[in-house]
Fold this sequence. Notes:
The strands form two sheets. Strands 1-2 form a two-stranded antiparallel sheet. The protein has a two-stranded antiparallel sheet with strand order 3-4. It has one domain (about 1-110, about 145-180, about 215-505). The chain has helices at about 1-25, 30-60, 70-85, 85-100, 110-115, 120-140, 160-170, 185-205, 220-235, 240-245, 250-275, 285-305, 330-335, 350-375, 375-385, 390-395, 400-425, 430-445, 450-475, 490-505, and strands spanning about 340-345, 345-350, 475, 485. By secondary structure, the chain is mainly alpha-helical.
Amino acid sequence: MNAFFRKNLLSAATLIVILIFFIAAAQGMNSQDFVITFLRGLSVGAVTFLVASGFSLIFGLLDVLNLAHGTLFMIGAYIGWTVFVRPDTFADLLTPFALILSGFALRDMYPLLSARVRLGLRMRRILPWALIIVSVLLLGLILPRYPIAGWNLDNYAESPVTYSFMASQGTPLPPPTATFDQISPALAIGGLLLASLFGSFGLFLFDQSVQRSPRLSWRSYAGFVVLLLVGLIAFIFNSALTAFLLGLNANWLFFIAVIVATLSGAGLGALMEATLIRPLYSRPIYQLMLTIGLSAIGVQIVQAVWGRPEFVMPKPTLFNGSGASCPATSFSSWWQGNCSTILLLGGRVRTYNEIFIPLIGLLVLVAVWILLQRTRLGMIIRAGVQDREMVEALGINVRRVFTMVFALGVGLATLGGALAAPSMGLSNAMGESFLLNALIALAIGGLTSYPGAALGSLLVGLIQQFIIKYGQIGISIPFTSIVLKPTPPIVPASTVLLMVIILLIMPNGLLGKKE
């Protein structure tokens, strides 16, 4: 009890000191600059929180250090941009993506199939490799020939930079069309489905920890049927779907882009956990090596598909107005004019960056906390971490629950990427910078603490923005005429310094628990 009291007293004292620091920092600027700087700090903190919270969930509940988390954040940004700026490309990709994922939705059936395959020990070692090789060959044969409308990185006029710029000006370029002229549709669909089935079954056979077959029910096949139907419907009605998306209001299209980016991240996370992470739960060093390798591969894929230049995703119409009634003087006038800025205390505040993003961060914080603390799934997750064998004895598939946790963590990262794209731009290095911010935030708040991820992210965002602001207006040294202006390298150094100070005082972070 005394240790608990001392721990909380120390945390409270540290937070009070930090609060005093911010109050002192506020005295050096007028109210207008303070409000704008504070809101910008909330914006950066909200995006950092979406990355840090996913990382914290995966590490805190599964004990997996996913160092590819920053790259997944970046991939979410590029997926969101693709759906928003080039919905025709998204419509073309929907069929092959759904078909490739469909085989992995049959994992509950694979233990039964594996038990019925009567092969010698030598063949059982060869079979997984043979299935995966056949799957890779099929994908290599079909995907380069599958018609997908895209862009041309070698021609600047047809590059993602130009498409993004023209879309931001309200005059999007007409998308090109793609037709089946190199492969027949039946061969493409059948080959992708077979590649998915062979590849997923081959990867399953590598997981030697599977001991028994789960009880099969309609849910065991539901995912496969849904993905197959999505792929076939998207193929049959491709032209209609493309026309529908291109004719949508920008606000609805942005909403769809965010949802698609989040779901794509969740699916990618589930795929990573089920095929690559799961066999390595008892090998943390291999986990680190694997996720570092996946991060490097992800960066190279982004560079190959979207190119190296930086560009910005256009904002939805709701936050992009610039008419005579802008900047808005109230939220009602903002709603009427869809102004990109609003006046607060005489200063202009960007409605998307400083108002919308922090609100989304707050909603995610509350929603995930309720999921973990007030739902049956959250109870199963916490119980499975504490005593996996007991939960499995109750007939609960803990493997599936852990896959859902990993998918949720990655989905939060890709959600953050999709939201950050219109405000901070897209670049190949955005994942590394936000992963560093997230790790610093987690070290400050507590590596396995979900509330600590929120608190640490808030502190990181606020400190960075206050340092940036003081780099513009300068810090007057008392009793002298010297005005100190922090240089840009001080911005990341300030958060590292705060992390070092807090870890020296509280090695487990502000809200972390001693393991």
